[in-house]
Amino acid sequence: MVMMSPQQKFDDASRDGYEVAIIRCPEDLEKWHLVNDYLKLRKQIFVDRLEWPLFHAEDLEFEQYDSFDTVYVVATLHGEVVGGARLRRTDQISGTGSLQYSYMIRDACLGVLPGLPQKLCDDMPPTSDRTWEITRMVVTGSRDVSRMILASINTFLGREGADTVLFLGSPAFQRMANSLAWPVKQLGPIASNSEGSFQVFECPVRELGPKNIQHR
């Protein structure tokens, strides 16, 4: 049996109609409709299907970490959004005055997010321009969409000069990362709340070789 690399799987999926877009302001405003559809997908999955008690307005799920400082990674199939994730650099600050936020994992550990356990990490998470955070990853349909999103994130972060990325998600994330040969390190215990079980992982940004993944 011949095993395909993540790059080959990504290329094959692209030919099947899948695309992954990296969207950030202000340079990608023409793609902002994809972010809007990603927020709709989050509401459909997290609020409507899983019944997580998250803030939402009409058909969008969003919060303080959805800002113009956030980078969005959105997967589409023939133009329809089928998955996505958001990225924040860990040295960024949003808000003014006493209402300031850094990123979800660190703010939870500081005790400023009532919906999340404070003991997510064994040590305080960093603030660094070389470390980023992945949150609100959501996928519908093929499992390969998750792999495409993670592969695109890895390529983007490599171009940004990042060393590591933190991920807050299901404990099953480790199996998916291992399938991409993306080594992960657990930074704290498995935690639970009304939304389910989750854990913080740290992953290195790895070299993909001379052939880069192409974004839309």
Structural summary, described in words:
The chain has a single domain (6-204), classed as Aminopeptidase (3-Layer(aba) Sandwich). Strands 1, 4, 5, 8, 9, 10, 11 and 12 form an 8-stranded mixed beta sheet that branches. A two-stranded antiparallel ribbon has the order 2-3. The protein is of the alpha+beta class. It is 26% helix and 29% strand. β11 (191-193) and β12 (196-204) form a beta hairpin. The model is unreliable at 1-5 and 209-216 (pLDDT under 50). The chain is globular and about 45 Å long. The chain starts with 5 loop residues before the first helix and ends in a 12-residue tail after the last strand.
Give me the oligomer status: single chain
Shape: globular
The value of Rg in angstroms is 17 Å
Give the percentage of residues in beta strands: 25-35%
Fraction of residues in helices? 25-40%
Mean pLDDT score? 86
CATH homologous superfamily label: Gcn5-related N-acetyltransferase (GNAT)
Q: How many individual β-strands?
A: 12
Number of domains: 1
Q: What's the SSE pattern?
A: HEHEEEEEEHEHEHEEE
Distance between the termini: 31 Å
Q: Which segments are poorly predicted (pLDDT under 50) over 5 or more consecutive residues?
A: 1-5, 209-216
CATH class: Alpha Beta
Q: In CATH terms, what is the architecture?
A: 3-Layer(aba) Sandwich
CATH topology: Aminopeptidase
Q: Total number of helical segments?
A: 5
Derived from helix and strand composition plus strand pairing, the structural class reads alpha+beta
Largest sheet: 8 strands, mixed
Catalytic activity: a fatty acyl-[ACP] + S-adenosyl-L-methionine = an N-acyl-L-homoserine lactone + S-methyl-5'-thioadenosine + holo-[ACP] + H(+)
Enzyme class: transferase
Protein name: Acyl-homoserine-lactone synthase
Keywords: Autoinducer synthesis, Quorum sensing, S-adenosyl-L-methionine, Transferase
